[in-house]
Amino acid sequence: MGLFSFTQELAMDLGTANTIIISDGKIVVDEPSVVALDSHTNKMIAVGEKAKLMYEKAGSAIRVIRPLRDGVIADFNACEQMMRGLIKMVHKGNRLFAPPSLRMVIGVPSGSTEVELRAVRDSAEHANGRDVYLIYEPMAAAIGIGLDVEAPEGNMIVDIGGGTTEIAVISLGGIVSNNSIKMAGDDFTADIQEYMSRQHNIKVSERMAERIKIHVGAALSELDEAPEDYTVYGPNRITALPMEVPVCYQEIAHCLEKSIAKIETAVLNALENTPPELYADIVKNGIYLTGGGALLRGLDKRLTDKINIPFHVAEDPLHCVAKGTGIALKNVDNYSFLIKS
Asked: For the whole model, what pTM was predicted?
């Protein structure tokens, strides 16, 4: 693919929280899935990190949108504009030429309906995609970790993203048993917002709750390496006077308890539907945790203790799906599990 090639190949992990684009085997775009539009003309003002800085801060003239909710497209027009903006970032140094037509592989949740798959495909085609292939995220995550997905051996992936948790057992290039639940990073953030309001009478924004999750988020109330308390500033819910509240990881572990229990139940359900031969492989190989949710402190230990199968956090959990999508792009003709439009 030279400079004058009219087809460019891109792999995209279109996530609820972040969108990652890979070109020529390298991550070229890693931005939040946020777009800012002019309220009157509907034209794009900013995308990615620049748009996220405006999130929950813009006036009525600017609409700042997260186009994906629960792993699916909630705002079709905004998603299309966001994809165009992010793809433009890939060839921003190449302004002399018209943008090339694209051959794309995009990661989608394994529980997607036909309508949801069609929405992703249409958005990609409107953003200049000519050949669009879709790959289920757990399959992409398994490839990204470095597993041989076409081997006659069972591997289990738990991919905790922003909008969905994808649980899948993979063998012989197919998903044998899967469970996709709408319980993931965004729900943890909402739990923290609700807890701070109820317990401390302090109003916190979605972004502040996310910062709390990153600094002191935990799945266990006893950790070997405890993070320092995080100080939260905000208005009192009743008096509107400013407040300063230190938050410790034990509190957050307590407030995330119910949500994490739902993920445990979903993993057990997926294991229940797994054929015994593959189950034996999974017990031997362990279960792999990927996605941003895998970074929650103590989550692997909690799941290992609960389910009695070792859980391993992947080496680079945030980028596993994107890396796997990039590898799938190079092997489009060899991988039979890619969904072609």
From this structure: 0.90
